[in-house]
Specification:
The chain is an all-alpha fold and 232 residues long. The protein folds into 2 domains: 39 residues; 147 residues, Tetracycline Repressor, domain 2. It is built from 8 helices and 2 strands; from the N terminus they run ααααααααββ. It has a two-stranded antiparallel ribbon. Strand 1 and strand 2 form a beta hairpin.
């Protein structure tokens, strides 16, 4: 990858000087954002510094502080945009449960893997940035919106099961999220961290969800007085 081309920006006396390169950016904030995204793709979310993002754009180390408090805030903004794109992709795939919950659920899983494959830098920033959520409540809210899509999908799928086979929708949503994320992170990535597997990530997820859903359709095991499962 090559640094972002900023040759069209004019120099001003207000910009910090970096040797002979003091540039005025029409949108320095967006340029830094794009630099961070490319650096994440190249080195991972923990592999670059705030100063490196500035050098990638071609400005002084002080210039980014006009728009971001620090590297963590820049990384959080990349993750937030990723979550927004991810939410939109999942919602399109779910398509309000059409044509039926089972088919829509499969589309949802494929969209999950497709995002991890085609947007590995966003995906890494979202889930591997180690950003404390207490410092970035907007990220917590964005993650919650992703879960809402999965929970709503689970609710509609559960409605197709017999009453005695219906698990809590939140539990199923978390199970499906963990399953999808694990397969996406290990086998469905679009970067060098993807592990080889003797089938496609999509086939692996489809088989796992099928087994999971078949298990739900079976009557739940009865419990003894000690709360331990036992055969009916």
């Amino acid at each position: 990858m090559t640094p972002i081309d900023i040759s069209s920006h004019q120099m001003t006396k207000d910009d910090e000087n970096v040797g002979q390169r003091g540039y005025h950016h029409g949108d320095l904030k967006e340029a830094l954002f794009r630099a961070a995204l490319e650096l994440i793709a190249k080195k991972g979310p923990a592999g670059f510094t705030f100063a490196e993002a500035a050098r990638w754009v071609g400005v002084s180390p002080a210039a980014p502080y006009r728009h971001f408090r620090d590297r963590e805030e820049l990384l959080a903004q990349v993750a937030l945009r990723g979550f927004n794109l991810f939410e939109a992709a999942l919602a399109r795939a779910w398509n309000a449960g059409r044509p039926n919950p089972s088919a829509a659920f499969e589309s949802l899983g494929r969209a999950y893997l497709e995002f991890a494959r085609t947007e590995p830098a966003y995906y890494s920033a979202m889930f591997e940035g180690a950003i404390p959520l207490d410092n970035a409540p907007e990220l917590r809210e964005a993650g919650d919106r992703i879960f809402v899509v999965l929970r709503n999908a689970s609710e509609q799928f559960i409605a197709t099961l017999t009453l005695q086979s219906r698990p809590p929708a939140s539990m199923m949503g978390l199970h499906v999220w963990a399953l999808s994320h694990g397969i996406a992170s290990l086998f469905g990535r679009g970067d060098a961290a993807r592990r080889p597997v003797p089938m496609s990530a999509g086939e692996l997820l489809e088989a796992a969800v099928l087994i999971y859903c078949q298990g739900l359709k079976q009557d739940a095991p009865k419990k003894n007085t000690a709360g331990l499962p036992r055969s009916p």
